[in-house]
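Review form for a predicted model. The reviewer records the input and the model, then writes brief findings.
Reviewer: anonymous (R2)
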Amino acid sequence: MAAAVLLSRLGGTVEGIEAVAKSYPDFFQQLQSVNIKVEIKHGMDIEK
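Model under review:
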């Protein structure tokens, strides 16, 4: 998750985001709430 925050400034891709769905299900929604662009690419499911 720390890498996602860092990459929000630098740009890039985080793989293996499925683990976030268990530890912090609302993580990506929280990033979006502070105006950080989040794009979930096809095949990466973070739904509960």
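Findings: Residues 1-8+18-48 form one domain.
Further findings: The helical segments are 2-10, 20-23, 27-33.
Recommendation: see findings above.
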